[in-house]
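Before surveying the methods themselves, let us examine one representative protein, written as a sequence plus integers encoding its fold.
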Amino acid sequence: MQLVEMTWPAVAALSKDTPVAIPIAALEQHGHHLPVFTDSMLVGEITRRAERQLHDRVLFAPVMWLGNSEHHLDFPGTISASPRGYLDLLVDMIENFITHGFKRIVLVNGHGGNNVPGQQAVFEVRQRHRQREDLLLLFACYWALGSQPHESDPSLVQHAMGHACEWETSMILSLAPHLVGDYQNATTVDPSGTFDPVYRGWTTKDRSAIGHIGKPSAASAAKGEALLKIFTADVVTLLERMLDWNGRTW
């Protein structure tokens, strides 16, 4: 079910055990070859596919395209909420659904910069409602739900998500090839850092003057369709687990 297509009485009539999926993403630079709406396009497509498989069992909010993209602001076209402002926005969205009686809510993330504020938002809301045992508040990145795509498709060079990389470029080639620029001649930007595995504060230009991270030249539309199927299946599995939750257990 798509929230934007429903009337308020139809929403009010839903079982409050219906899981609510809130896709969150970004509008930010994706190198020289991908559109700035890449993250929103991809999480939007994955959640649309998931909705088609789940029919009327899950309520999907529209994609929240404004994200925490401060680290990309050196590149024109990037639009970002401040980290603390974004955190408050996510908290408000979750709280709104709780106000309307819903108890099973997941932020389905499509942008790495949203990880920290997204997890913190879920944490803070849970603490506000610490006396309730019936709340299930989750944060999930669609590319980090357990699948290892390179194991099912050995042609994949990357083993993890980058930025405007083989994976994202492949998926946009599958969805909207007319929006993809010259990825074949894009240089490879190694995602590893000198201080790994320690977390280091960074801007994108610290790591990549051109804006992408990974190996976009290895992309293909066929890889992209395979990745979309894998990630959609992961999201569907997560939402089915939310449907099956007994309302009590950790």
